[in-house]
Write a structure and sequence with these properties.
Blueprint lengths: L1 H13 L33 E4 L7 E6 L11 E7 L4 E5 L5 E8 L1 E6 L2 E6 L3 E4 L5 E4 L6 E8 L3 H8 L1 E2 L11
């Protein structure tokens, strides 16, 4: 354990946190061995929580968005939980691709006018302009991870949602 701590201390001196990445000329997306990548690590229940009004009646937990410490500038990500009969109205994003991974429950999805079943383990990629919406027609909550490229959806959640009080866990009703 002492050796591990010494190694971490040495690495921290060699690669200080918060240092800006040096990108070599001619390789705009490459990182050098001395660069410290930025990252976000969110513990369970540690995201920025917002209660969504009707018809959703569920929780949004924002994990990463531009402006959050360590977050990448080009995307936002989070978790959304819909209770039984909770609904996300049909909508489309003009310039963003939205990725979904369904991690709990099941729902009906309306995708470009077609109704499809989504369940735990399903993945969906909705490109710009694809109309999509969901209704949890099951008896249990439905939860999915969403990623938006480029970012922007989190601003909508903040605008319409009620921020989670500090003593309330995501999933509990305010």
């Amino acid at each position: 354990a002492v050796r591990v701590c010494q190694w971490f201390a040495l690495e921290r001196r060699r690669h200080p946190v918060g240092r800006q990445a040096e990108i070599p000329q001619g390789a705009p997306d490459a990182l050098t061995m001395n660069d410290v990548p930025r990252y976000v690590l969110v513990p369970p229940g540690g995201g920025e929580g917002h209660w969504q009004p009707q018809p959703a009646n569920g929780w949004i937990e924002v994990f990463s968005s531009p402006g959050m410490p360590g977050a990448p500038a080009g995307c936002s990500a989070g978790l959304q939980t819909l209770p039984p009969l909770g609904k996300i109205r049909e909508h489309a994003h003009p310039a963003q691709t939205e990725l979904f991974w369904f991690v709990e429950g099941e729902a009906l999805a309306r995708l470009a006018g077609e109704v499809r079943r989504v369940a735990k383990g399903s993945f969906l990629a909705a490109p710009p302009h694809l109309r999509h919406g969901f209704i949890n027609d099951g008896a249990h909550p439905m939860t999915f991870l969403w990623v938006l490229l480029p970012a922007g959806l989190e601003d909508f959640f903040r605008a319409i949602g009620k921020q989670k009080p500090g003593n309330l866990r995501v999933g509990q009703r305010p």
